[in-house]
Design goal:
This protein is of the alpha+beta class. Helices cover 31% and strands 30% of the residues.
Length: 185
C-alpha cells in the first residue's frame, strides 16, 4: 500500500482514495496546480463575477500562490486535498497551520456539477481528521457572506460563528471555529 507522509503521520493513500460514487479524494500531487487553480477560479467567477466591488471580483488572483506552490506550502503540518472525478479535479480543500494548536480550513471549492453529492463534506471530514491527528485543537475558517450553502455545511459539521479576526472582515465574510482537540483553550 502506498503511503503519504505528513510530518510524522503515515496515512495510507487508500484511506483518502476510497471510492465515493464516481469520485475519490487524494492528497495534492505534482502537476495538480493548473487543475486546482482552474477549479478555484471557475467557482470564484461563478459566484463573484458580477459583484459590485472590483476588489472582490478579482480577489482570487492575488491569493493563489499557495496553490501554485502547494507541494511546499502544504508540507509541514498541512494538507491539500483534491477530489477527482472523471480524471479532473472537481473539489479542493486544505488545512494550513496558524500555530501549533490552531489551523485554518481553506481552499474549499467544489465544481458546480458535483455540489450536493457530499464532495465538500467528504473533503472537510478528511481535513478535520488530519487536523486532529496532527495535534491541532481548533480549526477556523472564513467564508464569503454570499456562500450560504457553504455556511450550512460548516454549521452542520459543528463549526460555531466567531468574531472576525480580520479587521473589517465582517463586511464580506463569516467566521467560524471548530474545537477538535482534547486540550481546549
Amino acid at each position: 500500500m502506498i503511503a503519504a507522509s505528513f510530518e510524522g503521520l503515515d496515512t495510507p493513500v487508500a484511506d483518502f482514495a476510497r471510492p465515493r460514487s464516481n469520485w475519490t479524494i487524494r492528497p495534492f500531487q505534482h502537476g495538480d496546480a493548473p487543475g486546482a487553480r482552474r477549479l478555484i477560479e471557475t467557482v470564484w467567477h461563478e459566484h463573484f463575477d458580477r459583484h459590485p466591488d472590483r476588489f472582490v471580483r478579482n480577489f482570487i488572483y492575488s491569493r493563489l500562490s499557495d496553490v501554485d506552490n502547494a507541494e511546499t506550502v502544504y508540507s509541514d503540518q498541512a494538507l491539500f486535498l483534491c477530489a477527482i472525478g472523471e480524471a479532473e479535479i472537481i473539489g479542493t480543500g486544505a488545512i494550513r497551520p496558524l500555530d501549533n494548536r490552531e489551523c485554518e480550513l481553506a481552499r474549499m471549492f467544489v465544481a458546480s456539477p458535483y455540489r450536493g453529492r457530499g464532495v465538500g463534506r467528504a473533503i472537510a471530514d478528511e481535513l478535520i481528521k488530519f487536523a486532529l491527528s496532527a495535534g491541532y485543537d481548533q480549526v477556523r475558517l472564513s467564508s464569503n457572506n454570499a456562500l450560504a450553502a457553504s455556511h450550512r455545511l460548516y454549521e452542520s459539521m459543528g463549526f460555531q460563528s466567531t468574531p472576525p479576526w480580520d479587521p473589517g472582515g465582517e463586511a464580506d465574510s463569516r467566521y467560524y471555529a471548530l474545537r477538535i482537540g482534547r486540550r481546549m483553550r
